[in-house]
Amino acid sequence: MMFKTKRDDEEEEQHQGQESDNEEGGNTDREIEMEGPEAEDAEMEEETVWSIQELSCSKICSGSEDRVSRSFKVAVVGSGPGGFYTAHRILKQVPQSSIDMYEALPVPHGLVRFGVAPDHPEVKNVINTFDEVAENPNFRFIGNTSVGTFVTPGSKKADLEVADLAQHYDAILLAYGAHEDRVLGVPNEKSLRGVMAARSFVGFYNGLPSEQDLDVDLSKTDTAVVIGQGNVALDVARILLTPLEDLKKTDLTEKMIKILEKSTVKHVHVIGRRGPLEVAFTSKELREMLQLPGTTFHMDRNLLASEMERAGKSLDRPRKRLMGLLEKGIKESKPNQPKSWSLQFLRSPLEFSGDGKDGTLKAIKLGINRLEGEDNNRRAAATGAKEELECGLAFRSIGYKSVGIQGVPFDSRKGIVPNVDGKVIDENSNIVPGLYASGWLKRGPIGVIASTMADAYQTADTIISDWTRGEPMLDSLSSGGAPVLDILRSKGHKVVSYQDWKKIEQKEFEMGTRLGKPREKFVSVDEMLKAID
Amino acid sequence: MPRPAPGQGIKVNFITREGETVTVEANEGESLLDVARANDLDVEGACEASLACSTCHLILDDDSFSKLEEPSDEENDMLDLAFGLSDTSRLGCQVLMTKELAGLTAKIPSATRNMYVDGAKPKHH
Ligand SMILES: Cc1cc2nc3c(=O)[nH]c(=O)nc-3n(C[C@H](O)[C@H](O)[C@H](O)COP(=O)(O)OP(=O)(O)OC[C@H]3O[C@@H](n4cnc5c(N)ncnc54)[C@H](O)[C@@H]3O)c2cc1C
Ligand code: FES
What we know:
Chain A: Its EC number is 1.18.1.6. Chain A: NADP(+) binds at residues 229-232, 273-274, 285, 447. Chain A: It is found in: Mitochondrion. Chain A: Residues 1-42 are annotated as: Disordered. Chain A: Belongs to the ferredoxin--NADP reductase type 1 family. The complex is a heterodimer of chains A (533) and B (125). Chain A is α/β, with parallel strands linked by helices. Chain A folds into three domains: 2-12 and 25-179 and 402-496, NAD(P)-binding Rossmann-like Domain (Rossmann fold, 3-Layer(aba) Sandwich), CATH 3.40.50; 182-398, FAD/NAD(P)-binding domain (3-Layer(bba) Sandwich), CATH 3.50.50.60; 498-533, no CATH class. Chain A is 34% helix and 18% strand. Chain A is built from 19 helices and 18 strands. In chain A, strand 17 and strand 18 (431-437) form a beta hairpin. In chain A, helix 9 packs parallel to helix 12 and helix 13 runs antiparallel to helix 14 (317-332). Chain A is globular, with a radius of gyration of 24 Å. Chain A starts with a helix and ends with a helix. Chain B starts with 9 loop residues before the first strand and ends in a 6-residue tail after the last helix. Chain B has helices at residues 32-38, 62-67, 73-79, 115-119, and strands spanning 10-15, 21-26, 57-60, 89-91, 104-107. The radius of gyration of chain B is 16 Å and the shape is globular. By secondary structure, chain B is of the alpha+beta class. A five-stranded mixed sheet of chain B has the order 2-1-5-3-4. The chains are: A alpha/beta (533), B alpha+beta (125). The A-B interface holds A 3, 6-7, 10-11, 14, 18, 28-29, 64, 120, 122-123, 125-126, 128-129, 282-284, 287, 317-318, 321-322, 420-423, 448-451, 453-455, 457-458, 461-462, 465, 469-472 and B 44, 46-48, 50-55, 73-74, 76-78, 80-85, 111-117, 119-120, 122-125.
């Protein structure tokens, strides 16, 4: 890819030390470990269809002269931070821009609503900026409307395809995030009760409609295992171990609170295939774990000491602080508390085994690893030794994963829409005019909202630069999304506006007040739509 | 908070991403984030001063940095995630202005560079 190398070097520098388990050179936290087998799966995903490029070819040489006077029409697909921050910047810098934001769900904000933990309300303050963006008269939210059928076989047909939008806008920004989760690819992962994706569990307790049928029973075991050592893994562990009285004050769904009331889970093991230096979680989340009341913390003190000695002075500040926090955690941990959690290293799951009768998880077989390779790129190699860990629940937390949609290039190996600073390119590194990407879809499913924001601004700059420099875009002669909305409505499709969303939200606040919590979420699309009328 | 009358506030210098130095005035007790926002400087503050985002990251001059009390653990946790962390980095929402800090200089760290915008040559004229 032509611009790629230089940019990667630059970023490498910026993120040094925050780098962790992502083999592709990702940056910080929100992601964890990617094991081998699924990488091969990814290669076999369906080929991309290049319709956007074909569509726009006839137009790309047509006038960009009129851009000074006419409005700049942008369609955004996805309403998470990636979509909202890009829209924010474009609206601010190009006064004649008008933005239509399409969102598959009736409710906006993506993982800020459905990912960020309920006990992190301060993180959700970003929504205030999104609300401000939505108040701009040149912004329109088009909720309950999906764009682009996923290429994975069996996917439900989307309400619109990217090609439907291409006729009506100058630019299309893809910011639809990471739709799936990575799998371990080991026996019984999908078949046993009690084994589930952290993504599904997080979606369940945050009220994501598509995860509400998840089979969550926390009352059959005292031990849960989380596989992966990123912040999502710690979110899951924390929700399992936090005193219920504290969680009741958050917007955790009532459905989840009922389940937690019956929970018998006392011990949570958080497992990683490499060592303490390679963990992907960050100090804030670790500190919260170490402050859990009535909870003993266990980890291998000798391994930490030897790893720290080995790294010596090469540790940068964030990593040094993180290791210091672990040391302190071990030293100050109170033994024999009613609950406990542990960090276990150098372990790779080989197999889940269950009770033959009811197909419920009973234990995980773990392969024991040692570390090999260069200091900054250490790999887990199997020693051949194995052990078994008894548990009744296992959450795989080894990463989210984006999926390609019809009509748009997709790099299934990296799991992103291939792009140069947000500008989408095809497999031959040719620019696809008018198509852009931001958020997790652009960079991979890693990074906190702050990095997604920085990234979104970078994409916005790319878009603005193309517009002002007269670079080829879709240059649609249509006046924007009105015809698209007409077609949707004529099909009886219900479109949700931001005002509609505010009505839904108001009802959520009201239900919350009655329950003594900030909000009680609607957990089904039907309920959300009903709340509007 | 109303802006201080000209000449009445505490002087603060910001170095913008473009490298320009802008001198503004702060009220006592205001955070550097508030001061930056009140003067339309490009400092984000995504979590609204609740120590949950690091987008208000600023790099202070050595002298002012050493006048301040040590950042809290929670502030350091967030700083660890900041782009371009340096030895005199602070979160703008946590630094409150006092008279002793008059003349403080805060650099707004540069964002991720955009090689595409910087490097691409316009093809059409
Ligand atoms: C469990 C978890 C906890 C996290 N906690 C924190 C935290 O505490 N602090 C922090 O800073 N960061 C946190 N993050 C990271 C943060 O959530 C991400 O950086 C950010 O949300 C990524 O934004 P995005 O816009 O790329 O994707 P998303 O937020 O996922 O937004 C994508 C949006 O696109 C929509 N969509 C999907 N497909 C379509 C389609 N076909 N058509 C239309 N719309 C579509 C989705 O419904 C969604 O609304 C967390 C992430 C996770 C997973
Ligand atoms: S505004 Fe978020 S940490 Fe300062």
